[in-house]
TrEMBL record, chain A:
Signal peptide residue numbers: none
Annotated localization: Cell membrane
Keyword Coiled coil: no
Source organism, top-level taxon: Bacteria
Pfam families, per database record: BPD_transp_2
Gene Ontology molecular function: any one: transmembrane transporter activity
UniProt entry keywords in alphabetical sequence: Cell membrane, Membrane, Transmembrane, Transmembrane helix
Protein name as annotated: ABC transporter permease
Membrane topology: Multi-pass membrane protein
GO cellular component term of the entry, any: plasma membrane
CDD domains (alphabetical): TM_PBP1_transp_TpRbsC_like
Regions crossing the membrane: 21-43, 63-81, 88-108, 114-134, 146-165, 198-216, 280-308, 328-348
Automatic annotation (TrEMBL), chain B:
Protein name as catalogued: BMP family ABC transporter substrate-binding protein
Organism of origin: Pseudaminobacter soli
Cellular component aspect of the GO annotation: plasma membrane
UniProt keyword list: Signal
InterPro entries hit by this protein: ABC-Purine-Binding, PnrA-like, TAT_signal, TAT_signal_bac_arc
Pfam families: Bmp
Domain ABC transporter substrate-binding protein PnrA-like: 35-311
Statement: the UniProt record of this protein carries the keyword Signal: yes
């Protein structure tokens, strides 16, 4: 008996709803077997993974704190992804955004100024966009591959950061360790409550999600971008410029990543060191796709990814699972999620003998 | 480097100056419950290397205190954002003693510690300490000085090579001491230094080791978190010096020695002190004398009399008879940094960002 | 299997062709008729050729029909169900040796499914197939070929970058001798009046020539039954009549031909008998030459055909579209460069551009639509304004709309809903307000098109890709017409559209022009152009002929222009059509 995977004539509405449920169910089954075989109580492990991290206010605060940059960046990236503009260098744009914001925070003449934070915000966004403008220019003018250019620019951004914190921006009172001085209080986002880390930068993400929804689902520009992505020939037929899709897509991603870098700096970090992002720029790509490039899907995707991360720590803490095992489990869930989504558009069919 | 006196150093360290004078935290000795201890590693535990040595410290607590303690371990926590959450979580869930094991854990610990004044925080590689945040660190340079002396005896080309993770004082200082140790045998020896800007990048490290060998270095010392430098040196027929763990099995018989780290004293000491209610934040910075730094067994290829001399050198450094950074010391440009007869101050050692004369290479 | 082959074939087809000598003198006697160069001059000896094959003597179609004999192929009660569709419902038919049998039906009537079942590429759910009176079991294409059944597909499966001979060799089993194969291709193709050069690369060939390669490939297998699926859709009238000669010649030699088409006139010209399909069922059988078109059409469509109403045109004072000395390099590797194209289209008229596909139509239409711009602004003027450098959107502002040849992916975004696709070009019609899409208006706009143009769709929320080709075409034509254009460009307006919808679309175009719009139609279907156009232009090798008044020209003149225009300057790339 042979089977073939074929495209559905129309995406399955049922699968659209059922896919996440199926994925969750399969993950729970496979995960339980996996944990049981390794000698851990599956129920306790799953509980530690998914329930414990969010069963306290601090847990929720941490969940949002971690999800916020992921969601923010994913919203920006999804704008481009919808137009088949593949910005995979959000990590670099985040770093550049953080560098620019830090530059303002460190060198603005009045460290007490209430203007400091807004200026850093603008600096972060503009720098992220400027970094993304390089691949946009190259793609629009010279048709270079933005995947390669954005990725390469990430390495350049990392090295630039490394140079700054090892060299000119190194904290003069920091015994030559590669980090900048801590930013002044006016350069930091106020936490809602000093017992928790969640701070007002979450509003940037909220605004970004709403903006992304309005842009993608309601605006004509967003519509044009989706046409460019789904059918480039139709975009040309309709007279939508390809270069505008390239620019919009990359700049949106760059701005979001730059803002996320700034928010990390003025939130949990407070200073620059050679490594400032735990791969948010790359994880956001997963979030964008888990969220099906849709604003609210991205919110769910970001929360899920961040929950997986916190859950990974929780099982280490409460059950002593090594981090490698938690990563395998995270991989299982993501695999099932994306695999189940595949069946929205495709189906498995049994083949007749001779066909 | 500006002139930082020890007092300034401590003042910089925030509340430490005050805290040192204050009494210990409320004791737990009377309590029947187990002492909960949290440990955060920067990387997964490997066969050898930095985190492995820390895990041996944790094992030592278990061996010493057995079921009086309950230890929670988290590995692979590198980023400051994540570290802060983990420290907070560990403190909130009742751990009374928490260890951070990486420089990158410093800022997060400084943020979390004031919120949990009842909890003792111990930070390895830290430079800042607070009322309930102590630091411990090893005098790597004592080990590299001895290893350098071994290299000085064994080198034929008069060139030794050094591979470092990052050009930070914790690495630059030991690199200098390596050369000074070698020069104590033969003053004309030079040392080529390469920094990888990574603790763990076997590919780049291999390249670096090859480069050093091709530059004529016949002793390679690698201060990273992999045995690659030792391996490549062995394959190329050069002597090698290991770091953190005994790496002799990677050296194809060319492993001269290693300056090993043993944190058991710090781990066990802190645990016992917290249990007894006598814990105070300290700045512990120990070397050969305390056994935090240990030399791995010397290679049999080193003549027996030299081995004896090296062992004597260990003793002399431990007793303070010999100080690796004894003047006159000049920097790469020939400026006198330490006058003849005097020694470099501790804060200057911890902030060392210059190469001594004879070092070849740039600091980032 | 092997046994079947030798018994069914008995004329050397089991003999690997590669063992044949390249010289006529050394040819084994059995193969003489096919290999003889003499056939170039005279029609081949009809009977003798098959004497050695053990097949009955056939002298022509008349005899084939009158003599009682075993059918070459017989279908009994074939049914095939696909999910949601009964593609073939209890179909029976029989084809005699030497008979040309038409399967006539609209798109979607089940013709292609039936052909696949006959060829063995698909399996019937029920029913039987007999070849020369023997039941075929375990049917698949290999079995068909062993039985001497060959198929020429509508869309050719040729490798563009290799030569004709190599393409053909790919279909043969075992080792081959390139020189022998080449000379054999030359012989066969000449003998059947469709010369091709085996050394040419396929990408250099016109569509008509590619079809010849396919046919020659089949003929090399010495078929007993040749299936052709819509073979004329890409051919000039001259090429069509040439093909018919070839097919008649083959039939006269005893080869049965199954001819699938939806074109009544061709079937009437060529075929001895016809089976008409509608909605997967046989709705009638006929002898086309003795049946009127109207009767055949009724069997096909199931109702009376709508009547075209073409009133005299009333031209605008100045041209709406002016093209002056437009030359442009093609951007695709195998495309055609446009050379000095000049013409005008006035308001109130329909101008048609006739031509075999691949002669510069794609380049011309993309330059006119603004999908491609031209550096000489005055080369294209729309409504009196220079438009050469304007992008598609700017040209639309001048009152242009455009129906492209490709519906999915160009004229519409496949995954988008119909109302979203309304926005594609309808965004100027008040569907976008201050940068935001007015969803309500867009849905109403789409609904209006669906109702006015009788689009069969599941409402404005249906995805474009869920519509049948004809319905989507109606939707796109509707969208472009609802925008009340001053100039409408249409490329292949009825390609793949059923008879009813095609008539409707044509009538709509006529009505639009009579309301004052200028309409330019690019089509490969001459009948269509003759039906609706006021003037005709012919494009060939990137050159466009001077206009011909429809009333003053005829198919022959247009057909000649379709092949001759460019050959004066480019012998190599011209259609190697010999007439």
């Amino acid at each position: 008996m042979r089977y073939r995977i074929e495209r559905r004539p129309e995406p399955s509405a049922l699968m659209r709803v059922a896919a996440p449920a199926i994925a969750t169910l399969l993950t729970i089954i496979v995960g339980s077997v996996f944990f049981a075989v390794l000698g851990y109580d599956p129920l306790a492990t799953l509980n530690a993974f998914f329930v414990e991290p969010v069963s306290s206010l601090n847990g929720l605060s941490e969940l949002l704190l971690k999800a916020s940059p992921l969601i923010l960046i994913a919203c920006g990236l999804a704008v481009g992804f919808r137009a088949n503009v593949w910005n995979i260098g959000a990590e670099g744009q985040l770093i550049i955004g953080a560098i620019a914001a830090c530059g303002v925070g460190l060198f603005y003449p009045d460290p007490e100024s209430f203007l400091l934070l807004p200026l850093m915000l603008i600096a972060g966004a503009v720098a992220g966009m400027a970094w993304a403008a390089i691949p946009a220019f190259l793609r629009a003018r010279m048709n270079t591959n933005e995947i390669l250019v954005t990725l390469m620019l990430t390495y350049i951004a990392t090295l630039l950061l490394s140079w700054l914190v090892h060299g000119p921006w190194r904290d003069p009172a920091g015994f030559n360790y590669p980090q900048t001085a801590l930013l002044p209080g006016a350069a930091m986002f106020e936490p809602f409550d000093y017992s928790y880390r969640l701070n007002s930068s979450i509003f940037i993400t909220v605004i970004a999600v709403v903006a992304m929804w309005l842009f993608a689902d309601r605006s004509f520009l967003g519509y044009k971008l989706s046409v460019s992505g789904a059918a480039p020939l139709a975009a040309r037929y309709a007279g939508f410029r390809e270069s505008s899709a390239v620019w919009t897509g990359l700049l949106a991603g760059g701005a979001a990543a730059g803002l996320a870098g700034m928010a990390e700096l003025s939130g949990p970090l407070g200073q620059l060191s050679p490594q400032i992002s735990p791969g948010y720029g790359f994880a956001a790509i997963i979030v964008a796709f888990v969220g099906r490039l849709n604003a609210f899907g991205i919110v769910l995707g970001g929360l899920l990814l961040s929950l997986l991360f916190l859950g990974g720590e929780a099982v280490q803490m409460s059950l002593g699972l090594p981090s490698a095992l938690t990563r395998i489990f995270q991989g299982i869930l993501l695999f099932f999620l994306l695999a189940a989504d595949f069946f929205i558009f495709y189906r498995l069919r049994r083949l007749a003998e001779h066909a | 480097m500006r002139d930082v006196t020890r007092r300034e150093f401590l003042r910089y360290s925030g509340a430490g100056g005050v805290a040192l004078g204050v009494g210990g935290l409320p004791g737990l000795a009377a309590a029947e419950e187990k002492l909960k201890i949290g440990v955060v590693y920067v990387s997964p535990i490997a066969e050898i290397g930095w985190t492995k040595q820390h895990s041996l410290g944790v094992e030592a607590i278990k061996a010493e205190l057995g079921d009086k303690v309950e230890i929670t371990v988290l590995d692979n926590i590198f980023m400051p954002q994540d570290a802060e959450r983990v420290f907070r979580e560990l403190a909130a869930s009742g751990n009374k003693l928490i260890f951070g094991t990486s420089f990158s854990h410093g800022t997060p610990m400084q943020k979390v510690a004031p919120r949990f004044p009842e909890t003792a925080f111990e930070h390895c590689s830290g430079i800042v300490h607070l009322a309930n945040l102590g630091t411990f660190e090893a005098k790597y340079y004592e080990g590299t000085f001895v290893a350098g002396a071994a290299a000085g005896h064994m080198t034929k080309t008069g060139k030794i090579g050094f591979i470092g993770g990052f050009p930070i004082p914790d690495i630059v200082g030991p690199a200098n001491a390596l050369l000074l140790g070698a020069q104590s045998v033969k003053p004309e020896i030079t040392c080529n230094a390469i920094f990888l800007n990574s603790w763990f990048d076997p590919g780049k490290e291999k390249e670096a080791a090859n480069t050093l060998v091709s530059q004529g270095c016949d002793v390679i010392c690698s201060m990273t978190d992999t045995p690659t430098g030792v391996q490549v040196a062995g394959e190329k027929g050069a002597w090698s010096i290991g770091y953190a763990s005994d790496m002799s099995k990677f050296g194809s018989g060319k492993h001269l020695t290693a300056f090993m780290l043993d944190w058991s004293r710090d781990y066990v000491g802190a645990a016992k002190a917290v249990a007894a209610g006598t814990w105070k934040p300290e700045v512990r910075w120990d070397g050969l004398a305390a056994g935090v730094v240990k030399m791995a067994p010397y290679n049999e290829a080193i003549p027996a009399d030299v081995r004896e001399k090296l062992k004597q050198l260990e003793t002399d450094i431990g007793s303070g008879k010999v100080h690796p950074y004894t003047g006159e010391l000049k920097d790469q440009d020939g400026n006198v940094k330490v006058a003849a007869g005097s020694v470099l101050s501790d804060p200057d050692i911890r902030g060392m960002n210059w190469f001594v004369q004879g070092m070849i290479g740039n600091l980032g | 299997m092997a046994a079947k082959r030798s018994e069914g074939v008995g004329r050397g087809r089991a003999q690997p062709w590669q063992r044949m000598s390249s010289t006529a003198a050394a040819t084994p006697p059995r193969l003489a008729p096919l290999a003889s160069l003499g056939s170039l001059v005279d029609p081949p000896l009809k009977g003798e050729g098959f004497a050695g094959r053990g097949a009955p003597l056939v002298r022509g179609q008349e005899e084939a029909r009158t003599q009682p004999m075993t059918p070459r192929l017989e279908l009994r009660n074939i049914s095939k169900r696909y999910p949601g569709v009964l593609a073939n419902d209890d179909i029976s038919l029989a084809i005699m040796p030497g008979e040309i049998h038409a399967v006539l039906g609209e798109n979607g009537a089940g013709k292609s499914t039936l052909m696949k079942i006959i060829y063995g590429a698909a399996q019937a759910d029920s029913g039987e197939i007999y070849c020369d009176g023997k039941l075929i079991q375990d049917h698949n294409p290999a079995v068909s070929r062993a039985l001497g059944v060959e198929m020429v597909y509508q869309h050719f499966a040729l490798f563009e970058s290799v030569t004709v001979a190599e393409n053909i060799a790919l279909c043969l089993r075992g080792p081959f001798d390139r020189r022998a194969l080449s000379s054999r291709i030359v012989e066969l193709s000449q003998r059947y009046g469709m010369p091709i050069d085996p050394a040419r690369k396929v990408h250099e060939l016109s569509v008509g020539e590619r079809q010849r390669v396919e046919i020659v490939r089949c003929l090399l297998q010495n078929p007993k039954l040749l299936i052709l699926d819509e073979p004329t859709s890409v051919l000039t009238p001259q090429a069509v009549s040439k093909l018919f000669e070839t097919l008649r010649q083959l039939a006269a030699e005893g080869c049965s031909i199954l001819y699938i088409s939806h074109k009544l006139d061709e079937v009437q010209q060529l075929c001895d008998s016809a089976t008409v399909l509608r909605n997967g069922r046989v709705t009638g059988t006929a002898k086309p030459k003795e049946t009127t078109s109207l009767e055949l059409a009724r069997m096909m469509v199931g109702s009376n055909l709508p009547h075209m109403n073409v009133t005299p045109s009333n031209l605008s004072d100045g041209p709406v579209l002016e093209v002056r000395d437009l030359s442009a390099e093609s951007r695709s590797h195998h495309g055609v460069n446009l050379r000095d194209v000049s013409f005008e289209v006035f308001g109130g008229e329909i101008v048609g551009i006739a031509g075999v596909s691949g002669n510069g139509q794609a380049e011309l239409i993309s330059l006119l639509s603004g999908e491609r711009t031209h550096k000489r602004v005055e080369a294209i003027r729309i409504g009196g304004k220079d438009a050469g450098r304007l992008h598609a959107n700017a040209r639309r502002r001048l009152g242009m709309t455009f129906v492209p040849e490709e519906r999915l992916g160009r004229g519409a975004v496949p995954s988008h809903t119909l109302w979203e696709n309304a926005l594609l070009t309808g965004n100027r019609a008040g569907l976008v307000r201050s940068g935001f899409v007015d969803r309500g208006r867009a849905v109403a706009f789409a609904k209006n098109i669906i109702e006015r143009f009788g689009v069969k769709a599941n409402g404005p929320e249906a995805a474009a890709q869920s519509l049948s080709g004809g319905n989507l075409q109606k939707y796109i034509v509707g969208r472009e017409i609802v925008l009340a254009p001053k100039l409408l460009l249409v490329s292949q307006p009825t390609w793949g559209v059923d008879v009813g919808a095609a008539a409707f679309i044509r009538q709509t175009l006529v009505d639009l022009s009579r309301a004052g719009a200028a309409v330019l139609v690019v089509s490969e279907e001459l009948d269509e152009l003759f039906e609706i156009c006021d003037r005709l232009l012919v494009i060939c090798q990137g050159r466009v002929s001077p206009p011909l008044m429809r009333a003053e020209t005829n198919r022959e003149e247009v057909g000649l222009l379709m092949t001759r225009l460019g050959t004066a300057t480019s012998e190599k790339s011209g259609l190697a059509l010999q007439d």
